[in-house]
Amino acid sequence: MTSCQISNKQEIRQGDAARPPLTGWAVLGLLSFRGERTGYELKKWADSSLRFFYWSPAISQIYAELRRLEALGYATSRRSGAEEPRATRRYTITEAGRRALTAWADESDDPGAPVLKHPLVLRVWLGHLAAPDTLRALVEQHIERTRGELKEVRDARLRAERVAEWEFPVIALGWSERQHLAELELAEAMLADLDRLAAARRGTRDDSPPDGAVRR
Amino acid sequence: MTSCQISNKQEIRQGDAARPPLTGWAVLGLLSFRGERTGYELKKWADSSLRFFYWSPAISQIYAELRRLEALGYATSRRSGAEEPRATRRYTITEAGRRALTAWADESDDPGAPVLKHPLVLRVWLGHLAAPDTLRALVEQHIERTRGELKEVRDARLRAERVAEWEFPVIALGWSERQHLAELELAEAMLADLDRLAAARRGTRDDSPPDGAVRR
DNA sequence: GTGTACATGTAATCCGTTACATGATTCC
DNA sequence: GGAATCATGTAACGGATTACATGTACAC
Q1: B158 touches chain A (CB under 8 A)
Q2: For B158-181, what is the mean pLDDT?
């Protein structure tokens, strides 16, 4: 119970010269499942799966990571020849890349705490500045969006289940599906809290508990 | 001269030229609860509360945001005079700042989707590259950490409940508490999935009851 | 013949972190 | 005297986004 005050990040790993950032490993991971792919394809795949539990980098970022991976020798690329219709660059993971990724994936030290930034809850936190209706509407919008996302995750999981080697992606997507379900419940509960508070504030004089002591 | 600047977020907001980023609003929000505060104090408060549902910026970032807020006229600061022991700069929200924050807090357009980056699930997604034990240990570590965080959120909520005007922060922290509970359940479920997969792989024909590890 | 998807990439810029520099105060 | 905490700030840099530039292929 000492120290650890102001700094909010875990230990930095140096020593090994140039380790890719997490995003780099994620992109290399994408490459490790499927063979030769273009940056564009990777982006689409990230959008339809990776983003649910991690994040989907901007396309320009994917291109940048691919270049870095290639510079590190973890991937190779080739331009489509004249025979192919479109000018594309297809990347493949190398043996060194697979080894590095495996070593990374098998590390036993802390992968890092999840990062959760919830703009809606931030707004609720400042709820005293907003109209109650605004807040309610915002939460309801969030619920709607989450329902939509939930469908997408489920579809992604269902698609992944058809591929025999994708058992781990299926687990990750299953996690994500439950996570979205939880998110819905969380939002409903918050809505109830908000309503309870609004009700308590409206009837502060009669039979409600004194001074907004909200009971759960 | 710059009338039609492209602002920093999706929409082009006319009128006010420079809107702070979300973090700026969060810092201004911190300021809106309590009076004159130093950057250092704000950081500690963010660490003990804001970080659970949004994020705790680095101290240098807080100082930077405070300067920006002051440049925008949303906050004022004064240096401690010679009478005070320590050289400090205390910030106060201005009337303009309170108006701007209120307008922001009461906006009805989408506050943005929550950002969730889960390095642990990313690792599970690449589980085929790791030893089963590594993965299990990682998930268990995560559960331990989450339990610790849960205690902290609960404490934060309990502390906040003692302040009458903090009803909305209490709701935000209550949300966060449930969120941590859900995170725990999610991790347990993933552990079970992982065990099931490992068992299935060991004995390729037999799907056993959800007892956990089945040795042969 | 126009719109959409495919496809790659550069430049500017911002957000945010870490490392560093500095110094006062408090408590042992 | 030394450690921890309080307190403020700068510099370097990296990660990531958006906007822009460019062009092909295909469908309606």
Answers
A1: no
A2: 97
Q: pLDDT (tens digit, 9 = 90+) per residue, A39-90?
A: 999 999 999 999 999 999 999 999 999 999 999 999 999 987 666 667 899 9
Q: What is the DSSP string of A147-163?
A: HHHHHHHHHHHHHHHTS
pTM above 0.85, yes or no: yes
Rounded mean pLDDT, B186-191: 98
How far is residue A215 from each of residues A100, A127, A135, A208, B24, measured CA to CA in Å? Answer: 53, 18, 20, 11, 32
A103: its two tokens: 């070593």
Of A178-182, A187-191, B12-16, B84-88, the least confident: B12-16
Domain spans, chain A: 3-103, 119-206
Protein-covered nucleotides of chain C (CB closer than 7 Å) are 6-11, 14-19, 23-26
- Tell me if B54 and A122 make a contact (CB, 8 A cut-off): yes
Residue B117 sits at φ, ψ, to 5 deg, of -120, 115
> DSSP characters for A14-70?
-SSS-PPPHHHHHHHHHHHHSSSEEHHHHHHHIIIIIHHHS----HHHHHHHHHHHH
Pick the CATH number of B3-103 from 2.30.30.700, 1.20.120.1200, 1.10.10.10, 1.10.3720.10: 1.10.10.10
CA separation for the pair A26, A10 (Å, rounded) = 19
Per-residue pLDDT, A87: 83
Structure tokens at A85: 């219709």
Contact at 8 Å (CB) between B91 and A154? no
Is the minimum CB–CB distance between A119 and chain B shorter than 8 Å? yes
Structure tokens belonging to residue A43: 């982006």
Q: Answer for A38: CB within 7 Å of strand C.
A: yes
pLDDT reported for residue B111 = 94
Q: Can you give the pLDDT at residue B34?
A: 82
